[in-house]
Amino acid sequence: MIQLRDVHKAFGSKRVLEGFSLDVHEGETMVIIGYSGTGKSVAIKHIVGLLEPDSGEVTVDGLDVPRLPRRELYRLRARIGYVFQFAALFDSISIGENVSMGLRKQGDLSDEEIRVRVAEALDLVDLPGVAQRFPAELSGGMRKRVGIARAIALRPKYLLYDEPTTGLDPVTSAVIDQLMVRMREKLGVTSIVITHDMRSAYTVGTRI
User: Fold this and answer.
1) DSSP run (H or E) holding 10
2) In whole angstroms, how large is the CA radius of gyration of the chain?
3) 196: nearest Cα among 17, 16, 36
4) Given pLDDT bands bounded at 50, 70 and 90, which one contains residue 167?
5) How do residues 70-111 score in pLDDT, each as one tens digit?
6) Average pLDDT, stretch 25-35?
7) Which long-range contacts (CB under 8 A, 24 or more apart) does 57-63 make?
8) For range 149-177, the mean pLDDT
């Protein structure tokens, strides 16, 4: 379970979160909607320790995220897949290398196990056979799907999606929505989806 309690966060004089609270229960897809710049992405960055609250509590499975030692924070992050707004792929390396980055950083798997895990993740997002290609060779929608593959390759308990359909045409957005639903149904992951796309919110969310 993910819990944020009375979280406050400011950047200089700009107060972004003022008493933000949220409970995300296991197995659900929680959608957070709102205008651009209202602090949606700021809120979920606290969950993986990319930001620390000025005050308030952030817990994941009972762990106090802001107070975790670095080693334990890395261990927690291995259970949380993060899908960035613009996929955040590295253009200079292949798709397979992009998807395998988290797995290699963990250092627990052999090269063959990583290759199998990458192939499984790309199959799940309907992109078999693209491991040797480069991001510049793919469409925007395909790059988004690679970003999801990179997140699920870690076999996370939680998936955080930051504006997953931003910049996509309606048809491609619908494909991404169905992928998010599939991740919940096939993998049983608990998800948080940040969006201002109401059609997407009603499609993927079990709670908004």
Assistant:
1) strand 2-11
2) 17
3) 36
4) confident
5) 989 988 988 998 888 766 788 899 999 999 988 888 777 888
6) 91
7) 57/3, 57/4, 57/5, 57/6, 57/7, 58/3, 58/4, 58/5, 58/7, 59/1, 59/2, 59/3, 59/5, 60/1, 60/2, 60/3, 60/158, 61/1, 61/157, 62/1
8) 87
**pTM, two decimal places:** 0.86
On whether the CB atoms of residues 137 and 127 are closer than 8 A, the answer is no
The DSSP string of 75-124 is: HHHTTEEEE-TT----TTS-HHHHHHHHHHHHT-S-HHHHHHHHHHHHHH
Which of 187, 190, 182, 156 minimizes the C-alpha distance to 203?
A: 182
Q: Hey, which residues does 62 pair with through a beta bridge?
A: none
CB 140 within 8 A of CB 163: no
pLDDT over 90 percentage in the chain: 53
CA-CA distance, 126 to 107, in Å (whole number)? 27
Q: Average pLDDT over the chain, rounded to whole?
A: 90
Burial of 8 (0-12, 13-18, 19+ CB in 10 A): middle
Task: Measure the CA–CA gap between 35 and 16, rounded to whole angstroms.
Answer: 13
Residue type, 11: F
Give 174: exposed, middle or buried? Use CB within 10 Å, 0-12, 13-18, 19+.
Answer: middle
Whether the Cβ atoms of residue 72 and residue 17 lie closer than 8 Å to each other: no
